[in-house]
Write a structure and sequence with these properties.
Length: 341
């Protein structure tokens, strides 16, 4: 397949919208990561996503919308408390799991009776969905299990020759996938996947947030997942990665004892000089810089002669919870205290 690179001009976005209506796949930028888009109402188009990504069939997709009218078409019910919530955080990096409407094919939701929905903030994403005239399912535009794409080059590396179009929208502002929440009745929410909308932000507007155990631990065998990004291994570089916990000086000293020609470190900016071979994923004191840099850093290891990666572990508050979530899955939950390394 010939993959065409499109600019974000109105004429080219209109052409990409027409491709989506025809059942083709289009990669496009959002404020979180690049998405691999298909017409959410066309089960054959949605099936292409699973084939192209080699995505497990039990991993549900998110339907992206560009207005409230489109939301009403694809969900069976919208609780008043969720209308209030989305009024505050949409458009934006928040995905809500709601009862699935009849128009949404079961393949979108991995056979569940719910559908995950998001209204992205990125102007290119909004314009593309308007041009398509249909809700657009869009998991991250990468091969399944690989680090998510945050720029055009990442999409081209994984999907050239596999999709009809990739829209160049520059680098993603957040760099991590959206927060996913499941309404539990009233103003109670379950956090299924952390992202740019943090538990603290949800609590600040009057919601009670329960964090699903699978955010920081593997899902149980055979467990059905309501959100993307909950599977055991995800976002992973090719080399095995181990997270090392503890005070930074202790972590650095422990990893230094393991360094060799084929051993690399995922480190904060402040500690790069401590290691012979390291890749940065932002500042220890700036979670936003970590979120923007993480997936690019994980992809960089695949270009380096490394057979083992050791990673420093960020603080767990705010966006740090989302970064921990992605690191744990990238490392297949291989985590060890510095004193035991």
């Amino acid at each position: 397949m010939n993959t065409k690179i499109y600019a974000d001009s109105p004429a080219e976005l209109a052409e990409c919208g027409a491709l989506l209506r025809k059942g083709e796949l289009v990669c496009f930028p959002t404020e979180t990561v690049y998405g691999l888009g298909a017409n959410a109402l066309d089960p054959e188009a949605v099936a292409k996503i699973f084939r192209v990504k080699n995505r497990p069939a039990n991993n549900p997709l998110i339907a992206h919308i560009c207005d409230h009218g489109m939301l009403e078409q694809i969900v069976a019910e919208i609780p008043e408390e969720i209308r209030e919530l989305t009024a505050q955080f949409w458009p934006g990096p928040l995905t809500v799991v709601l009862p699935r409407g009849e128009k949404i094919p079961p393949i979108v939701s991995a056979g569940l009776d719910t559908v995950a929905v998001r209204w992205p903030e990125h102007p290119v994403a909004q314009a593309l969905i308007r041009e398509a005239g249909v809700p657009v399912v869009a998991p991250s535009a990468n091969l399944s299990g690989r680090p998510s794409p945050t720029c055009l080059a990442h999409c081209k590396d994984d999907l050239t020759g596999k999709v009809s179009a990739i829209i160049d929208g520059g680098s993603c502002a957040i760099g991590l996938e959206s927060t996913v929440i499941l309404p539990m009745g009233g103003k109670k929410l379950k956090l299924l996947r952390p992202g740019g909308i943090t538990p603290e932000m949800l609590e600040a507007v009057g919601y009670e947030v329960e964090i699903d155990p699978a955010v920081l631990a593997p899902v149980q065998e055979g467990q059905k997942v309501s959100s993307p990004g909950m599977l055991h291994k995800h976002y992973a570089p090719k080399a095995p990665m181990t997270i090392v916990t503890g005070e930074p000086d202790s972590v650095c000293a422990a990893i230094q004892q393991k360094q060799a020609e084929d051993v690399w470190v995922l480190a904060f900016d402040e500690y790069l000089p401590r290691f012979a071979q390291a890749v940065s994923f932002g500042s220890e004191t700036d979670a936003a810089s970590q979120s923007r840099a993480l997936f690019d850093a994980l992809r960089r290891f695949d270009t380096l002669p490394c057979k083992q990666i050791y990673a420093m572990y960020p603080a767990g508050d705010g966006v740090g919870l989302a970064i921990r979530n992605r690191l744990l899955r990238a490392a297949s939950f291989q985590i060890i205290p510095a004193e035991r390394l």
